[in-house]
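**Protein record**
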Amino acid sequence: MSGAQDQLEIKFRLTDGSDIGPKNFPAATSVATLKENIIAQWPKEKENGPRTVKDIKLISAGRILENNRTVADCRSPLCDIPGGVTIMHVVVQQPFMEKEKKLPSDPKQNKCVCVIL
């Protein structure tokens, strides 16, 4: 029975409402390992998938989970129902380089001029 308590069934909810999982993970699993699992199971048909662990933010019970924490550390006693599925929300951040590329290269392009007569 204690082996079942050391396992958590986790489902990862993507921003479009689709899910990855549910899948069982030991309570000692790190958040970074969960993120690696998400990258490995990311649906191929979805655009803008994560490339690295740093591209993903996992949110559980309203808290952003840190990579060095374990699943047991992140459990919320209010949200975990014995035998239930824990849902973690997945947010994919664009890498910093891609954000820079989207900025306009010509600062005059966004220039606004007002004339008062």
About this structure: The chain has four helices and five strands. The beta strands are 7-13, 19-26, 56-60, 63-64, 85-92.
